[in-house]
């Protein structure tokens, strides 16, 4: 539950944003522990004084947030062994001109595929079938060399999903994700009550209706409609509450920054993972996606470490203040900081317990700590430097999960009597004392010792 004073403050902030930014309607919600703890809306769905008031169940077009659903469906295929992220497009869709680019490059906007189609502005015109889209693909512009956002690339991923599942991308998303998550107000086309897409004149308080069509083969880039109530469940999903729909390791893989959004002359604060946007705000990492279609703006943003999230939806082509979603979430977190988790004793196998404590790489002190179920965390005692977590991979073996040692093998080397001599990690030797002469230190240890 949210404190009344916090709810009042958040509702005031939403009202100020709707009024000052001249938005026909604005709806938002905050998520904690997988639940929608606060939501509010202001304005009417058609922008008229006599229109229906917006609320947390009002549908808005989510735009590119659609891409996150397509991406999760693709990753489920990967986890089932039906594709590899390194697969070139031509392995599954042979008739394109971008056959050399990989699925991972398409997901992370690193394929160099052009941003939009060569035809009419697809967001404002009725979309055609795949056979019409494939003629607009062209050749990759800058494949694999830098970030280049591509709506067209997600049209290709939607076709990939359709071919490998034998059903349209939207049916796959509905069957595999929306229905299990109870997101019954998330649909491909608008279902009443829904907001009307509107543009607000920059110099007069008047409105213009924006067109809305089925995007056809481009629909996977931004077709879906949803509500604050439904997208709160998606925020909880991106925050780690994936249930049996997606492995935790797969979600973590999606949330790693792969391609930086580089703006010359400015420090980078944004990146893309596998189908998701990532933000680095003062050292805090967020995952989610923004959305923009004619008449609509949207954002889902979740703090990766805590799972606290925010959803913002409006029916205006432009005007929403940059950073409003983050500011709203920050206001909530500052008013009601998350209490630390309750400490409880865990399970530590005896073979792990004997390894904990100080280890030395050369003259640098490291600490090896036991985590639950035999996992380990190795980090410099100073707190700065190469730190990684490791999961068990057999007797006396662990696999690095993150940091410098991601994917590398940590092995406890034992003496003939069964005691541990040293740790071997990617050819580095960690010993119980600095340069232990009794351990197998590469290059040997000077016989004269310390002096």
UniProtKB/TrEMBL annotation:
Domain named Beta-lactamase-related: residues: 13-328
InterPro entries: AmpC-like, Beta-lactam-related, Beta-lactam/transpept-like, DUF7586
Residue ranges that the Swiss-Prot or TrEMBL entry lists as coiled coil: none
Keyword Hydrolase tagged: yes
SUPFAM superfamilies in alphabetical order: beta-lactamase/transpeptidase-like (SSF56601)
The keyword Hydrolase appears for this protein: yes
Molecular function terms, GO-annotated: hydrolase activity
Top-rank taxon: Bacteria
Keywords annotated in UniProt: Hydrolase
Domain DUF7586: 348-432
Official protein name in the record: Class A beta-lactamase-related serine hydrolase
């Amino acid at each position: 539950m949210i404190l009344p004073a916090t709810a009042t403050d958040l509702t005031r902030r939403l009202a100020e944003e709707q009024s000052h930014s001249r938005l026909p309607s604005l709806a938002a919600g905050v998520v904690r522990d997988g639940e929608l703890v606060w939501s509010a809306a202001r304005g009417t769905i058609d922008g008229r004084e006599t229109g229906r008031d917006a609320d947390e169940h009002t549908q808005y077009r989510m735009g590119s947030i659609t891409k996150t659903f397509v991406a999760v469906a693709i990753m489920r295929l990967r986890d089932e062994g039906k594709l590899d992220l390194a697969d070139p497009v031509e392995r599954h869709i042979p008739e394109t001109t971008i056959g050399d680019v990989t699925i991972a490059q398409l997901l992370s906007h690193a394929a160099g595929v052009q941003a939009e189609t060569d035809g009419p502005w697809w967001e404002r015109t009725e979309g055609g079938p795949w056979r019409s889209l494939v003629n607009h693909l062209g050749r990759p512009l800058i494949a694999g060399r830098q970030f280049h956002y591509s709506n067209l690339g997600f049209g290709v991923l939607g076709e990939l999903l359709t071919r490998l599942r034998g059903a349209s991308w939207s049916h796959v998303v509905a069957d595999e994700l929306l229905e299990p998550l109870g997101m019954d107000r998330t649909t491909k086309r608008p279902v009443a009550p829904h907001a009307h897409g509107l543009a607000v004149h920059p110099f007069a308080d008047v409105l213009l209706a924006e067109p809305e069509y089925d995007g056809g083969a481009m629909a996977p880039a931004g077709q879906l409609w949803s509500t604050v109530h439904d997208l709160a469940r998606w925020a909880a999903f991106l925050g780690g509450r994936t249930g049996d729909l997606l492995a935790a390791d797969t979600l973590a893989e999606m949330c790693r920054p792969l391609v930086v959004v580089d703006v010359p002359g400015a420090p980078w604060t944004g990146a893309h993972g596998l189908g998701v946007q990532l933000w680095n705000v003062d050292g805090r990492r967020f995952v989610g996606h923004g959305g923009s279609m004619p008449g609509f703006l949207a954002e889902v943003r979740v703090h990766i470490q805590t799972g606290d999230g925010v959803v913002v939806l409006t029916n205006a082509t432009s005007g929403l203040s940059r950073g409003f979603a983050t500011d709203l979430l920050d206001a909530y977190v500052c008013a009601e900081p998350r209490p630390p988790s309750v400490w409880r004793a865990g399970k530590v196998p005896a073979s792990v317990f004997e390894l904990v404590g100080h280890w030395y790489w050369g003259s640098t002190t490291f600490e090896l700590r036991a985590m639950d179920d035999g996992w380990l965390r190795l980090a410099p005692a100073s707190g700065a430097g190469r730190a990684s977590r490791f999961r068990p991979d057999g007797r006396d073996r662990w696999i690095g999960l993150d940091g410098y040692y991601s994917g590398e093998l940590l092995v406890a080397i034992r003496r003939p009597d069964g005691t541990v001599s040293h740790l071997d990690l990617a050819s580095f030797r960690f010993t119980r004392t600095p340069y232990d002469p009794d351990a197998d230190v590469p290059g040997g240890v000077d016989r004269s010792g310390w002096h």
